[in-house]
Amino acid sequence: MSAPLYERIKSYVSQNRISFAMPGHKGGRGLENDLLSLDVTELSGTENLHCGGKYVQSAQRLLSELYGSGESFILTGGSTAAVQSMICGAVKKGGLLLASADCHKSVINACALLGIRVRVFPKEIDGEFGVPLGAKSVKEYITDDTDAVMVTSPNYYGVCSDIKVIAGECRDKGIPLLVDEAHGAHFVADSRFPETAVRYADAVCHSAHKTLNALTGAAYLHLNGSLINRDRTREALTMFQSSSPSYVIAASADTARGELAKGNAWSGTYDMCREFKEEIRGAGVKVFESDDVTRLVLNFSRFGMTGFEVSRALSKKGIDVEMADLCNIVLIVTPSNTSSDLDALKKAIAQIVSADASGADVQRVLPPPPCNQTLSPSDAFFAERVKLPLERAEGRVSCVSAAAYPPGIPVIYTGETIRREHIDYINYILSAGGEVTGLADGKITVTELKE
Questions:
Q1: How far apart are CA 244 and CA 142, in angstroms?
Q2: How far apart are CA 150 and CA 166, in angstroms?
Q3: Domain extent at residue 397
Q4: I want to staple 384 with a disulfide (CB 3.0 to 4.6 A). Which of 305, 344, 347, 448 is the partner?
Q5: Confidence check: pLDDT of 362 > 70
């Protein structure tokens, strides 16, 4: 039997690599051993996740109590399903969603599917690290036709926005605040972490698999108040997820919540990361101070190395990072990581910078700022289309979102007119070793010109 994908993944994990990437269980270290035996379907004795009985309701009630929400749901379709559903419950068809410029591409994709207009507001960028900073206010961007606001907090780099202030601004306008807190499911574990957005926002999603001991696809959605249409949100959850949800994933989301409620494991991880940051600074590596101490953002520009180069070098040494960009690598540390993992990382970095560094500072190239879209995401997505080489696409309207992945933040938004600066930035990312989704063989899908 030939099973190329299975064989490749099995070969990869057999190398016993050190993971600073998701999922949070780090190769199964934090998982229950009997999960695979729980792969059942919706039977009279197992209930249905989409119309839960006693046990599903009990699990979701415990989840709601942990985060302090009005209502919480266990999902098996990742935060993408949560993002789609909360937007569906907050914005009317043809309505307007105001979203942060560092929103995940799933936000734009949801608007394309739902016939919703989207306007992005700019984010300040840290000039030294090239990292998007958190929003302190959105009041100046809210217009009379805004139906809801979507903020990503924390972002991929562990940076949080001032959710308490932004929530107040939204309530003053009578509109719901939606927060993509996919990377912050662990915030309730220790008082030294930022406050969870669930305390202030109307809808919040968590990717349980990113930092908790849950399988990939496990997620939570939390709802508060009456500004979001809860009935429509619940119905959307059944539309955007499989009608046969994985009980293996759902059960892992439930056990991850149970472990998180204990909270004690994260205290040691927090202290371990603080100590590591001080030690790695001693080796000359620049460290970005994220709001989430366990999100490590390390910058190698002074060594003449891009994040992509450092990521590849670490991979050859059996160490996986979550993501890399032009200047940084980003690492996710969870209680399933050990102090020996960080010791191995520190040793590997010391070897890399001493052996491969050129000493020439890496050029800092920031992504182009977003512009107002020419077409709505829906109109662009469903328009007559043609594929063009990226170099010939200037001035055309994109039918897709092109995003450096990870983190999945669009460089070109669906419905946006492609500018020369988009093309130059994407080419630079690709030449430096990055990956951009939304392109196929160097081509991008654009609207067809009418005679």
A1: 39
A2: 10
A3: 377-447
A4: 448
A5: no
